[in-house]
Design goal:
Elements: E1 5-6, E2 10-18, E3 22-29, E4 34-41, H1 43-46, H2 49-62, E5 73-79, E6 83-89, E7 94-95, H3 96-103, H4 108-127, E8 130-131, E9 140-143, E10 151-154, E11 161-162, H5 170-173, H6 190-194, H7 201-216, H8 226-235, H9 241-244, H10 252-261, H11 273-284
Antiparallel strand pairs: 1-2, 2-3, 3-4, 4-6, 5-6, 7-9, 8-11, 9-10
Helix pairs in contact: 4-11, 7-10, 10-11
Length: about 300
């Protein structure tokens, strides 16, 4: 696919990644010239009629979603030879997952700054009816890492389901099984494991898993197999920080906020992204939120 020009406008230069949904290419837009990223859906996924319909609906919505902490979608379409694709802004940076693998744990203050930024992005997306459903460190891009200008951008909103329509799991779209649904097993909320409805508060559970991992260096639930982890998520309370990270210096209030995010039922979690950011800020005792972070979006 390297060398292919999508719709005569975006020439794929090199493959930079591949996942369950498709391939990711560094590409060049021909006019006006600029560097972009092209995400191409796998053929087996693009062949599902309901996926094609959902893809087109979501791309129309995402074209209108703009936020300084969301990776911008520049274009989308269906190439006659390669099928559905997205064009996204190119960001020279590193994923939070790559950063986490190098450093393992992060200071609460630094994590708090990230929380405000991606909660600001979630606040805007949720108000527009978009639920991410696959929040994880791999889907957070860190720009200018380890500098005073470090900032987060959330990726892959373009493949989210609309909260205004029923969730259609990828396994169902492609004829395979599962109540697990779209999303990465380590970060799925319990209601998705149970097969219940999932709304924007499922994203806050995924945030809780990320925060637990970023602060303690491990996931809240582990086991010999995926089924064991999923069952624990539904039935067991997450471990205390002191049990998995003895001698830590994480404020008790921060742990309390994360445990609230990891509640088994959505009505026990923060109810909006701003509430979560404010709770984390208060628990840290630091001023992190700026007036512009949540301005202009109704609760």
């Amino acid at each position: 696919m390297v060398g292919h020009t999508f719709l005569g406008r975006y020439r794929a230069v090199r493959l930079i990644g591949e996942g369950g949904m498709g391939q990711v290419f560094f590409a060049r837009q021909l006019s006006p010239p600029r560097e972009v990223v092209v995400k191409v859906m796998h053929e087996r996924i693009a062949a599902a009629p309901r996926f094609r319909q959902t893809f087109e609906q979501e791309m129309t919505l995402m074209a209108r979603l703009r936020h300084p902490h969301i990776v911008e979608q520049l274009d989308a379409g269906v190439d006659p030879l390669r099928g559905p694709f997205l064009v996204l802004e190119y960001l020279p940076g590193t994923s939070l997952e790559q950063l986490r693998r190098r450093q393992r744990r992060f200071a609460p203050g630094r994590v708090g700054r990230w929380v405000v930024q991606f909660c600001s992005a979630l606040h805007t997306a949720h108000a527009a009816g978009v639920v991410h459903r696959d929040l994880k460190p791999e889907n957070l891009m860190v720009l200018d890492p380890d500098t005073a200008d470090e900032r987060i951008k959330v990726m892959d909103f373009g493949l989210a389901q609309l909260s205004a329509v029923p969730h259609i799991a990828l396994e169902k779209l492609t004829g395979t099984c599962g109540h697990i649904g779209g999303g990465t097993p380590d970060f799925l909320p319990p209601e998705q494991v149970r097969g219940d409805g999932v709304d924007h508060r499922g994203d806050f559970y995924s945030v809780g898993v990320m925060l637990f991992q970023l602060l303690t260096g491990r996931l809240p639930f582990t086991g010999p197999g995926v089924a064991d982890v999923l069952l624990a998520r539904v039935e067991k309370a997450p471990p205390r920080f002191a049990d998995v990270f003895p001698g830590h210096d994480i404020p008790p209030g921060v742990e309390a906020v994360i445990r609230q995010c990891l509640a088994k039922y959505p009505n026990e979690r923060p109810q909006c992204a701003r509430e979560l950011a404010e709770a984390f800020e208060q628990a840290l005792g630091e001023r992190l939120i700026r007036p512009s972070d949540f301005a202009g979006v109704a609760e």
